[in-house]
Amino acid sequence: MDSFVARSCSTRRCTPLMLGGVVIAFDAFKTHDIDEFKKIISDVLNREQTFEEVRTITFLGALDRVLHPMGFKIQVEHKTFVGAHGRAIEEDVSRKLEQYVSALQSSAVECEEKGVEIQVKIIVGAPLIDVIVEEISSLRATWTILDRKLKKETRSCYLKNLSCKVAQVRDNLCLEILRPYNIDTGYRNTKHKLIYSLGKAVPLPPTQEDESDMTSTRSLPITPMIRSRNPNNCLMAPPMTNSEEKLVSSDDESDTSPHQESQGEIEIGEEDKHDGSRQVENEDDDVDLSYSEMKIEAGEYSSDTSPEDNDPKEENKAGDEVDDEIQECSNVSDQPFPCDSEKTNACLESLRSSYSLVQTATDDFSFDKFLGEGGHEVEYKGKLSDSKEESKAGEEVEDEIQERSDKPFPRDSKKTNACLDPLGCSYSIVQSATDDFSFDNFIGEGGYGIVYKGKLSDGQLVAVKVQKETKPQTSAEFLAEVSPLSAARHANIVPLLGYCSKGNLRILIYEYIHNKSLEWHLFDNAAGVLEWSQRYAIAVGAAKGLRFLHECCESPIVHCNVRPSNVMLTQDLIPMLGDFGLAKYSTSKFDKQRNFLGNLGYVAPEGSIGCVKADVYAFGIVLAQLVSGRKAVDAVPGDQQQSIREWALSLIESLALDDLVDPRLGAAYCTYELYNMARAAYSCLQTAPLSRPTLTEIVCILEGENDHLRHVSSNLYPMIIRAEDCSLLIR
Ligand SMILES: Nc1ncnc2c1ncn2[C@@H]1O[C@H](COP(=O)(O)OP(=O)(O)OP(=O)(O)O)[C@@H](O)[C@H]1O
């Protein structure tokens, strides 16, 4: 052993896996104490007489089943290594590999002194025994050590099929030699049970110098993950074929030492083949782009780090005139709505004028200007006049509305349209904008009110929502309640531009969103079929909007009515959440019952609608609808109704994710995004509210920030939590 060539730390870093040496085979699905593995290493190093000429110790972990992050066990077979299952397998393998590599780093020092390399390889395939034998043959092991947790009854099979020398770990952790000589088994490596593999060398612990290098490249793993690349599946390493063996043997000709590099098996970037010290980032560049987003890099995720990737400069530009609290949100990278555009501000300010202007705009809420009605409001079309005289007259007439001035509108009032009262919206403006709430301007009626389309004097289109019934409250109380809603500005939130009240009438004025609601796009016969990429983008955008309401406003805003009809779409299909925070305004028993029934498919099992976890549940239903194109509650034969939740959860639990997809899409969908959408929906639809994720977590799941799942409740992701909690025990 003393004669072994010492290698420098830098060359160890990126050394491809080596052939030969001692292979320690273990069942990677089971929990292992790393101290046991370290003891095996010490025993091998100390028994030079037995394990002569050892240059490499390979920990070969085999998986014939993996624990899906959703908590199910997946039996691995070739046919399961597709789509969502494939991703789950890949993630599990990556995670395990990183854990073993980092746990074995301290032993790498001991090995380095004796010129021995340690490497870890995780292989996936079934049956376990076949895949292990096949891989040991490919690795050309001189010795195989069978871990004590491999099934004892299979020992004779290993002995029969392995041509190399064989030892085993006994329960007292001592090594026992089973066969100290090679045999010819006639094994020809033709079974190809291996489905997928990933391996890499265990590096020495970083020196101080290395650490400073690493800080400059952020918290990248100490050693790079070496991935096999296959034209058909970039992460899949096929069993070594004869031609690959030849490739290795041709290298052997120039290097007669047993220290051979398996170039045909674990493929890395060209540079790596020549220069082992290549930087990690470059290596990742070699990974197929379609897979790069799913890469898991230990330690890179911080729960403090926002996954948002918006350009902060753009946000700051917009932020000049945005409220302070919105600025705070932009600091955590939530994109504020660019509400300071001149046009928006002018309209916003114009809408803060007196009730009389609304009255004028809608011809005193004439039926002609009636647009539609929600459960809470009636919307009228109104036409605004920008004449100063009219505004003045309106203010004089509507003294009552002056009440509102004791609750100043919390926004910048510098840009006040000269003709309007900056403290609230004039009724006459709304009245005129909606042509006195003319029928022509009626858009529709929802649970809270009737909605009218309106046009302001500067041409801006608005949706005017007139509450159908209101609880007794003063105008001041009303304004105090809605002003936080009007302060909520985000790219995925329908801006509340203004509001006014007259007597019992409560009016909310929103920006008009041109392209109808998600409900229409999913379910109306006149709508075209939304493409998969559009659905996925809508899911992510809507989640960001809801995240903003829950997590970025001064005090959290519970939407209370998350459903496709409240996801409005722009012409570019950007989703905008509307109707948020309104449920509390509904007072009549009839409306409450109507809203409850209307929302039936979206109400969480605990029956609450006024808390963030209830919003999360409803969002899970929306996700399932986006994927499947199904109604929240569908009629099934026999006058029965089936909730989308039951239907979707049973498919997700049986991992039949492809069956979730809207049949109108055929095969035109991305399996990775489907996996993320299903995973997010599954988490949202948990029965226990506390098991449901936060919106930040949902965005991470949707965008494939899988490492973040470890922050989600342990009952959903036991495997991940356990591994994290116990550094020595690896599952
Ligand atoms: N900002 C908006 N821009 C354009 N159309 C809108 C806007 N807000 C609402 N609408 C339309 O007005 C109609 C009524 O909407 P409303 O939100 O009141 O009812 P709903 O969403 O059908 O039910 P619910 O009150 O339960 O949310 C719907 O057709 C909706 O698409």
From TrEMBL:
InterPro entries: Kinase-like_dom_sf (IPR011009), Prot_kinase_dom (IPR000719), Protein_kinase_ATP_BS (IPR017441). ATP binds at K465. It comes from the Eukaryota. Residues 437-709 form the Protein kinase domain. Residues 271-281, 381-395, 402-413 have a biased composition (Basic and acidic residues). Keywords: ATP-binding, Kinase, Nucleotide-binding, Serine/threonine-protein kinase, Transferase. Residues 222-322, 381-413 are annotated as: Disordered. One of its GO terms (molecular function) is ATP binding. It holds the Pfam family Pkinase. This is Protein kinase domain-containing protein.
